[in-house]
Amino acid sequence: VLMVGDYGVGKTLALWIAAKKSVDAGRTVFYAKTVLDMAKILQVAKQYQPATVLAEDLDMVISDPQSTEMEQLRQALDGITNKTDDVLVALTTNHIDKLDPALLRPGRCDLLVKIERPDAKAAAKLVRHYGGKLLAKDLDIESVGAALAGHLPAEIMEAVNRSKMSCIDRLSRVVSADQLRSETIEGHVTEEDILHATHSMKMQHELLKMKVKDTRHPLEKFGKAIGESLNIRLGGNWQNASEKAVEEAVGSLNGSN
User: Could you give the count of Cα atoms lying within 13 Å of 50 in the half-sphere of its Cβ?
Assistant: First the structure.
């Protein structure tokens, strides 16, 4: 089983749950500190089957698909496919594009699980979980969930934690200091507090987004920039026209030497 996802989406937590369920089911659990030890660990795991072997961050250890280490891992995983072995291997990776496609074929990788960032519904549930009794009864959970959709669970937890300070600051403007000290903020955290906290983390959120590699031809990048400039200065469909012209140019270049 290979779990794929962005940093912090919950892959490690998923492994922890897999380990707990394996123990509950009477399986022996092995945790590999590095996938480089996978061959040796699998040999031991076969002696204690049914067994579950867990390892994290495959791409951080093996980044070259053609490396000797990747070949050793491929051979190790091929070796556990015979019908007499009951060994489950669960791996995680942040960058599936760094892995050898041969590693992903059925027989080596039987199940590929993509773990996405929370959507609006999941984000709302996490806010409920982290906020608990602090949240106001009339809190607009749908607007909060929509604002936090696409944020990492750790970001959502931090937003809830920061909203407490926002709540205290807001209440301090409407009640006396003595009254504020004698009361609790339980039931007073509103969507305004959480949205304010979310906004304060905007720059950090942008930095935590996965960067998508730009594979466009240099002419395509140039055409995009020119098109946007013309569109801003002159209006109309100049951008689409310039991009189309560049696509034709790139096509002719790719067809020649």
Answer: 9
